[in-house]
Each structure stands twice: as structure tokens, then as C-alpha cells.
Amino acid sequence: MSRPRLTIGTFGTIGFQTSSNGRVTARARYRDWDGKSRLVQATGDSKRAAEQALKAKLAERTLYQPAGIGLTADSPFPDLVAYWLEDLDLEDRLSITTRQLYERNMRTLVMPAFKDLTLREIGVARCDHFLKQLAKHSYNRAKQARVALRLALALAVRHEVLPRNPMDHVSRLRKPPTTPNALTPSEVNAIRTAIAFWETGLSPSGPKPDGQLGAIVEVMLGTLARIGEVLAIRRRDIDIVSALPSIRISGTIVAHRGEPTQRQDHPKTAKSRRTVALPAFAAEAVRLRLARRDDASLDALLFCNRDGGPLTTNNVRRQLRHVLDLAGIEGVTPHMFRRTVATAISNEAGVDLAAELLGHTDPAITVQHYIRRNEMVNPATAEMLERALGKET
């Protein structure tokens, strides 16, 4: 009669053998995750000691161990990080930018605190304390560290190296209250004036103007597109001859580490791919820019360097900052133009249209990060109170 088949992760009857020197060896068949039964043994000074040693050995045996992973609960944390990064590359579902961001955050924010620990030593209390200490200095850094640490430990749980993810039980990060900052119409016009003066070439310092910065700002104000999306606009994306001029936002500029700056054939998200009607000021800026471009091919970029290649977002930011510093205007970033336009659209037609123009999937993101709160209460309250509580005549 055949013996009953072991289920995965279980062992059979323990057998004992005593050697000539009195040492006892305990043996049992153990069925691994791959379905194969293997003989596992341990030795002790007595039958009881040998049995305990064998059971401890079986308990430590990993139920699932992909080829080459070699991780256990006693593995150092850097080993898990290395395997996690390899796993991200194998999945190949993240953009290069996001993959590099995860690696940077892990190595600069998380590793300094966990590099000398084993996986077994990383518990809820340690993770919770780490995030709270980091959040004291920067909420954003704590948020980014939390994402990277959670993903790496989740991989250890999926591969049954750890029984649970300690990050599932840390306390919630509390974001400091902030109010989105947007420009007023007079501030927008002051920026236009400063850029126009600099582009005349009369400015005493700074890089020689090439006539693109003013047009870039006008297109950002007219489309609510991100700076990378504006710099990725091609001739084929522009319809300037129709009764309703428009631009299709279909890509962005990326600069991956160790690679030249290039145009990516899709924007940040799927919903970010959109066609935007142009106001008159943006349409005029596009017409003037097209008239100055020598390259008539459909794939020619609207804004480019001297070789026709893409401008880098960092260089445009640096140029804008320099020009506005000369004019005494501080704190303006390309992203502030998005908040400015989003606030204007929200005031005129509501947050849903502002979210659609921004390319957001959730209007809550628009409200939280882009719409400047109007502190003026509806003035109709004054008439209501006058009718209810006004002095009798």
C-alpha cells in the first residue's frame, strides 16, 4: 500500500539513527513548493535535540523561492532592494522616469535608515518612526519614501519571504495644509512685459534671447499644458487655419539619466492626450513662431534648439527664472501657469472643465493642488442680511 502524498510545505514521519559516537540524526521527507519531496536531516546529542533541530530547519525552509532569489527573513535589506529593482525591470510596466524615481527615492531616502537591517528586523514600529521623522523635514519626501518601501516589502510578502507587510499598519501621513498659489491677471501681464523687454535684446545680462520664451509662456497659458507637453508640440499637432485654432497634446519631452533629451510619443497619462482650442493670444504666438521656423516637415518641433532638437525643460525653467529675476519677479514657475489657468477656468465654468483641460482623471486632484480658493463670500449675503436685520426707518 503506497504512502499518502504530502502536501506542499509539509513533512512526513521523522526517523532517527544513532551513530557510533552517540550522536542522533533525525530525518524526514519534506515536499517543497516545486512539488518534489526531499530528505531533510539534522543532528543532535539526543533524540529530542535532533528532533527539535530538524523541526527548526523545516520551519525555516522557504515555501516559495523563485530561481535565483535566495532571500530569507534574515537577508539584509539591500538584497531585497536589488531584487525589487530587477523585478520592476522584468515587469516592464513603468515608464523609465517612474522607474528611475523609485530607485532614487529608495537609495537616497530609505536605504540610509534600513541598509544595516535584516528583513526580519523591519517591523511596523520601525517603519512608522522612520516616516514620522522624515515627515518632520518634508511631507513630500516621506510620501515618496513610503511608496518605495511599501512596494519593496510587498514583493517580499508575495514571495513568502515575510508573512506580512509592516507598511500596511503604519499611521497615515498628515499633509500640512496648503493653498494653491495662482497669478493674478496683472501679474501675468507683468511677466509678459518682462519677457518682451528681455527679448528685445536690451537686457544687460543673461543668455541671448531666441524669441521662443514668450511664445512658450503664451502657449502654456492658452492650453494649460505642462512645460514638457508644450515643448513636444510638432507642426502636425497644430491646426491654425480653422475657424477654431487648436493644438493636440500628444507627447512630452523626457530626459532619462544617461540618455539624450527626446520627445516621448505620449503625455504623462492616457487622459493627458487631448486637443485644446486656442485663445487668440496663444494662436497669435503660434502663428509667429511657425513663420520663423525653417523646417516645414510635419514632425518639426514648434520649439527647438539650434539643431532642431528638443529643448530641455530644465533650461527653459532656468531661462524663465533668470528673466523674471531681472524684473524683480520671484517665485514664478511653469507649473504656476497651470494653476493660474485652472483657477480662471474653474471660476468661469466650474472645476470639471478645469480638470478636463488639465488632463486630470480626478477633479479632486484639481481642487486640492490647482485651484486657488476665492476668499470672497457671495456678496448676495449682504442683501439677505439687510432684509433680515436692517434698521427700521
Q: How far apart, in Å, are the first and last alpha carbons?
A: 110 Å
Structure annotation, total helices: 14
Strands side by side in the biggest sheet: 1-2-3
Sheet with the most strands?
3 strands, antiparallel
Taking Cα atoms only, what radius of gyration do you get, to the nearest Å?
A: 31 Å
Percent range of helical residues: 40-55%
**Protein structure class:** mainly alpha
The domain tally reads: 3
Return the CATH topology of the largest domain. Answer: hpI Integrase, Chain A
- H/E topology pattern: EEEHHHHHHHHEEEEEHHHHHH
The chain-level mean pLDDT equals: 84
CATH class wording of the largest domain: Mainly Alpha
- Which regions contain 5 or more consecutive residues with pLDDT less than 50? none
Question: What percentage of the residues does DSSP assign to strands (E)?
Answer: 5-15%
Name of the CATH architecture of the largest domain: Orthogonal Bundle
- Large-scale geometry: elongated
Task: List the defining traits of the structure above.
single chain; 393 residues; mainly alpha; DNA polymerase, domain 1; hpI Integrase, Chain A; 3 domains; three-stranded antiparallel beta sheet; 14 helices; 8 strands
Fold and architecture overview:
With 393 residues, the chain is mainly α. Helices cover 46% and strands 9% of the residues. The protein folds into three domains: 15-60, no CATH class; 77-169, DNA polymerase, domain 1; 185-369, hpI Integrase, Chain A. The chain is built from 14 helices and eight strands. It has a three-stranded antiparallel beta sheet with strand order 1-2-3. The chain has a three-stranded antiparallel beta sheet with strand order 4-5-8, with no helix packed on it. It starts with 14 loop residues before the first strand and ends with a helix. The model has no long low-confidence stretch (mean pLDDT 84). Residues 75-157 form the Core-binding (CB) domain. It holds the Pfam family Phage_integrase. This is Site-specific integrase.
